[in-house]
Amino acid sequence: MSTPTTTPSLTDKNFEAALATVQAEINRTDGKASLLLAFNGACLAGLASLAGEHLPTPTRVLGGMAAAAIVLATVLLLLVVCPRLGGEDRASFPYWARLAETQINACMHGDTRAARVRILSRIAVAKFTRLRRAVDCMLTALALLALAAVGAVL
To answer: Where exactly are the transmembrane stretches of this chain (predicted)?
Structure first.
């Protein structure tokens, strides 16, 4: 006696693809943020090593502005990698963590994939937005550092 095989519907395939895509995007932002955090740390260490040097006032001002932009970028990057544990969405582990086993069992009777795609997509968009702002701050800092370097040479 053979067991009946069920083939996933197009909707099932689309949901699974969407979930995989959004989860991969979240992982990408976390990886990028980690790399940029290391870069920012190196930049801030380099700037700190110049703190005792006698530099022209415009160079010091531009360097301070650059340091502030790097610090802001670092804060944004830390927000990218900071876990979200609100979980009022009824389709994620933070929500399930507060439930009794019987309540979790009741939650599993419905298809939560659409809610998970929505929630994960919101998380991904928030992470990418912060990542983009952090990169903008870093580019601003690099421009300010270039101007400071020119000012130090002149």
So the answer is: 35-55, 61-82, 134-153
